[in-house]
Amino acid sequence: MRDILLIAKREYLEQVRGKAFKVTTILIPVIFAAIIGISVLASKNSGAGKHIVVASNDAPLASRVREKLLADKDAHLIVDVLAPAADSDRRQLISQIDQKQIDGFLWLTTDANAGNAKATFVSRSSGDFTTESRLSDAVDHSLVQQRLAAHGIPAGDVAALTSGVKIQTEQVKNGKEVGSSTLGSFFAAYIMAFLLTFTVMMYGMNVGRSVIQEKTSRIFEVMLSTVKPTDMLAGKLIGIGAVGLSQFAIWAIAAALFSGTALAATLMSGGLKIQISAAEIILFAVYFLLGYALYSTLFAGLAATCESEQELQQYAPLAAVPVWLSFSMITFIVSNPNSFWSVAISLFPPCAPIAMFLRIASQFPPIWQIALSLALLLLSVYIVVWFSSRIYRIGILMYGKRATIPEMLRWLRYS
Q1: What is the pTM of this model?
Q2: Which residues pair with 196 in a beta bridge?
Q3: How far is Cα 241 from Cα 296, in angstroms, rounded to an integer?
Q4: In a shared domain, residues 282 and 345
Q5: Overall domain count for the chain
Q6: Short-list 218, 254, 179, CA closest to 397
Q7: Which of 94, 124, 159 finishes a domain?
Q8: How far apart (Å, rounded) are the C-alpha atoms in residues 244 and 157?
Q9: Which of 83, 108, 167, 231 could form a disulfide with 59, with the two C-beta atoms 3.0–4.6 Å apart?
Q10: What value does the CA radius of gyration of the chain take, rounded to a whole number of Å?
């Protein structure tokens, strides 16, 4: 145990004192916040400032659509009306798009009673779905208003009948209704999943790189004269894992301090409420440790069979497939936390650290599922440690020859 702690201390201090730890500790939250901020601003301003022409054979309907579009303050659209419009006008509008005088036009036609309508949006871009969505909402709303007015309903009543309702979201916890935020829950799950994905893979690769560096520098040959290979592997895992927990602790303290500032209150005033409970923090740490133990041990075993970091990096994408698979299902898991596939992937050990925590952030699953997930994950860690430690014992002393699967099976028998 003394040798394990000495190696863990050495690995921890070497990582913490390095520039990479300081840079990533500061830059990762900043970059992540910038990515979220840019994505929010980009989605808010997507399709803004476009010059659109509403061309229709129904002038009142075209005017209603224009008013609806101009009412959207985030769009900042320039909307002209061309009514009544003929086929020659359509050819002229296409020419204006081609000459970049306008960004697009809405060709809207109705029958005599506005009972049937047909709308076509023509623009330079084939992927301007934001403007298309705004136009669709404006046309639907305007058609409803015009049809109601055609049936003799007063204009004031038409506005009241077509007004929208903002839905407030609440969640049932322990038989009680509590306030919730759909967007906040998604961002909480996204942030936690990203941190788990990034840190588990980053520190797992750090273990592999450490093994490669010491193997190529022949430091192992000296250290093995006084330390057992299994103690060396255990010390590396503990030391580098402690670095990850230290980084999480720094981020948690910084987040707690930031949450009490006026800037945080301003950001959260828009209805975006991110709430993380103490149970979620504890389970986050547990799943990080188990996920880290699983992947770092796997990378250590792979590194012992490799001759260079480039060779290790070729295997890294294969080892990372379960992590990215669970991360890619974030929308499905958060929306359907109790579906068969969500439960199945959260119990599958390689995906459990990410998938189970996505379920926890959305809707706290039954305790037995969390317990089963942790038990399966612990069993997987034990199997991978057993396998990798035996590969590690012999692989770290093998030079100049690529390890094959039959050779690794022989190493297991030798160990």
Answers
A1: 0.62
A2: none
A3: 9
A4: yes
A5: 2
A6: 218
A7: 159
A8: 61
A9: 83
A10: 30
